[in-house]
Amino acid sequence: MAQESPLVTEAKKIPIEALKYTYTERDVILYNLGIGATEKDLQWTYEGDDEFSALPTFGVIPQFPASGSIPLDWLPDFNPAKLLHGEQFLSIKAPIPTSGELVSQARLLEVLDKGKAAAVTSVVETRDKSGTLIFENHSTVFIRGSGGFGGQRSGSDRGAATAENAVPKRSPDAVSEEKTSPSQAALYRLSGDENPLHILPEFAAIGGFNKPILHGLCSMGISGKHVFQKFGAYKDIKVRFAGVVYPGETLVTEMWKEGQKVIFTTKVKERDTIVLASAAATLVDNAAKAKL
Ligand SMILES: CCCCCCC[C@@H](O)CC(=O)SCCNC(=O)CCNC(=O)[C@H](O)C(C)(C)COP(=O)(O)OP(=O)(O)OC[C@H]1O[C@@H](n2cnc3c(N)ncnc32)[C@H](O)[C@@H]1OP(=O)(O)O
User: Fold this and answer.
1) pLDDT digits (tens, 9 = 90+) for 142-162
2) Which residue ranges are recorded for the region named Disordered (predicted)?
3) Fewer CB in 10 Å around end: N or C, the chain?
4) Does the interface predicted TM-score (ipTM) exceed 0.90?
5) Which atom of ligand 1 is nearest to the CA of 193?
């Protein structure tokens, strides 16, 4: 493997502050609505329901400001409009509180030189006030036009976070289809990702798109909801964002159960194109389920 670029070695020394995220049940409902929960899903949209809870992929929300605070402007020709979410891994370490204060600490893990792009991976640990680890997130952003700095091309093996999750050669065990709304990104952004790429046509145009695109974490949340509805609770989930989704398109999640893993892919129905690939969730076993 090639040596780490000195630029990356220096970037890893930049101090990164821990960031607080304070939230109420209202934020949980807003997130659940943002990934397609409806008034029929009272456990996700009515705080008075006995089973009221956050959908599992809420775990990407408290860490988002911390992950986004990692400086990237040291990359060659850095342009925020050229940044796309490349991959996400979420590990859920403890039951998800429906309100409270969490603290997230981000660190820069690795920066790969893909020639035409840089692939930047950060890791964030999110803890409650007592210090208990609640979530671990690994996020990779793919920054077009910022490659060629002479760094390593391949990354470290991070287990489930980097697993290929090849799709079995049989029909899926379950399929869920859900049409997103043309306002999906306008709603989802209220959970914290205000990147103009998802709302402002002029900004999307600089990024090379003829209209705003949907947040990757919104598509992941919708498919993560499909996995939860078909197979139950999971302790981690990983996706690669393989193609863009436009608000209003229909997502089709195809799922295969392989032991404790649910491997899945997500397609946009209208364009028959894969948008989430190398994706899987690890189901909680029954003993762990009793605790979560
Ligand atoms: C949580 C906090 C942090 C997150 C902040 C996120 C902010 C958000 O607001 C931003 C978003 O939500 S953007 C929306 C979601 N993302 C997308 O829509 C991206 C969709 N994917 C693409 O367009 C292409 O796959 C594309 C462009 C990504 C790659 O396509 P190509 O350029 O054709 O790449 P290709 O030639 O196939 O491969 C080149 C090398 O790159 C690796 N690679 C490919 N796709 C990758 C991906 N998605 N993530 C990471 N690496 C990826 C390939 O493996 C290849 O590497 P190598 O040459 O070494 O084999």
Assistant:
1) 999 999 998 899 999 999 999
2) 146-182
3) N
4) yes
5) 9
